[in-house]
Amino acid sequence: MLSLLHTIHDQTSHRIKDTEKALIYQQICLDPGITRKRIVTDLKLRPTTVSNMVAELIDQGMVYEGELQSNGRKGRPEIRLYMNPDYLVGVAVYIVSKQLKAVLLNLKGDILAENSINVSLQMGNDDLMRLLVELIIPLKEKTPESSKFIGVGLSFFGNFNKIRQELIFSMRWPNIKNFSFGKLGERLNSEVLVSTSLEAKLNHLLMYENEYQEGGTLLYHWGYGIGATYAMNGVILESTPGYIMEAGHVAVDLHNETVCRCGGIGCLETEAALWALLPELSKAYPGVPENENDFRPFYLEHHLGESEIIRKAAKALAQSLATLYQILHPERIILLSPFLMDEGIYAYVKEQFYRRTSPYTHDDVTFLLLQPEFRGEIYGSTASLFKNRLQKELTVQD
Ligand SMILES: [Zn+2]
Q1: Which of 32, 186, 222, 264 has its CA 20 to 30 A from that of 158?
Q2: Residue 158 Cα, ligand 1 centroid: separation in angstroms?
């Protein structure tokens, strides 16, 4: 995000001096130890502008002065400038297997403190509220004295209503219904932002990989559940209520009459999601773990990728990818899946995808596989909290 600060005032009413302040701060963030003189040359700004803005940034606590830069005999030594990474801190909450995890992170993305809590799959709304408060408050209290706390970004699996700020339902937590993040914000006395885990991951990828700012990016998850999210030119596709791209709940086989956990009939998830494959898999492979992280090593060790059950699922999955591709034509398809960590199944999905799409369009698409440890949602879920606050802080005070 720090390399995108020069755009922070775009699409808002702002003055030239606000952009200059953002540019100067960005330069200090990206080039630690830079001097006022070098900022003047690098940004081609007037020395008085730089000196006034730097004074304001120091006064705010966003920037501090370090050691002197000795530059030989000629000229007077200049003071080096550094950003204060702890100026703003926030909390990110995310899910790994059966745990709710939270981290306190600063502007640079350094993790200052962590906390985690085990959750029962049977928990209800009150349990979730209590657990989140227990998880987040101790981290909020660890905010360094000179730092400003900006709020909490949560990334969950499930269906959200963004207007009402509610988690409507989640396949993993069947007893959670219309959980209110507004109420959580009141309990925490903090701003609370919520996104799906995939949106938060994609949001981070868009900021981190510059080339993703151009063209279409499809992020597709095939695991315990199935879902997708898509961005065009750096902007994630949304709908008014918030639910979108329910790839796992689109039917690929019209003869499939199985009732899905969502209540629909014949959804892709009933053919290919881990939750739906588990009964059959555990007959053939007793002790197969339920959650994705434990499942992955078991799957690879026992070569489950070679089983007919997985191949059948992979074929249905490839059809879903092909359909999404034909609708959106993304330049890149990023996959996140324990199943695809098996090279044979990954190759099979791609082969089936190419069979099911027109050869005329194949030159334009690249497949990428995300590592299961990828935790971009930590940064993606909190990015707009940091951005909104920086926008205010980087407006010149009158
Ligand atoms: Zn469904």
Answers
A1: 186
A2: 12
